[in-house]
Write the structure tokens for this entry.
Amino acid sequence: MVALFALTTALLMGLADFGGGLLTRRAPALTVVVASQGIAVTVLGAIVLATAAWREAGPQLWYAVAAGVLGPVALLCFYKALALGPMGVVSPLGSLGVAVPVTVGLLLGERPGPVQFAGIGVAVLGILMAGGPELRGAPVRRNTVALTCVAAFGFGAVMTLIAEASTSVTGLFLALFVQRAVNIAVGGTALAVAARRGHRVLPADRDGGAGALRSALPLLAFVGLADVASNGTYALAAQTGPVTVAAVLSHLYPVVTVLAALIVLKERLRAVQATGAGLALVGSVLLAGG
């Protein structure tokens, strides 16, 4: 089951990233984050009420609060890095967040077998290559690398924290609701500050941005719900089996994003990306079968 939940996480995260990338071509990244998470928290609020999940509130929800604070910070650092540096460098580096949950798993005493260790190495190499790393060209500025590393740490930390925020399915609904509510509080505050400083926070169209946002609602809803669902399936994967296995399989999401761009946008797949996708698949088989 750990492989099923983790691969579902990779699928959902990859599609959410692809949808988010499309949306940020039309609207500011911060607006996309706040709007998509707003839809997600509305749905989660209804689920929490319907399942009486609030009864499972306890100290463990502080993990969800921490994840809610780190999430928007990580996303903003990642988008800023993409704006400053080449995507072929930033995207693969961003997936290095897998090191956080893997390290936690090892510190907790998990010891994968030889086949799984080989699978981890092959899968991580495949993930990095699937992003199409640019090995030539102008040197990348230090602040771009620093922002990407902060984002990667944040992504890995969020996955680790949310896995610790609950011990049951209904408790997971509550934890995800709290996380998303904090996301909106942090992101909404940043959005208000940006608007006050005169930065554009809505898409540019004849309706002042409102029309563009309305037309984007289906995709915003998909991105928000897929993102929150991916956190949920990762938590289930981490609670079902070894965290090291769950983390690496979940971080196959860049492969999904690359393939979505290939199918939907007809982007050409570079040789290094195709090789990376193949290695990631081999690594996932080794992990699942080990």
Notes: The CA atoms of residues 20 and 223 lie 6 Å apart. The chain has a mean pLDDT of 81.
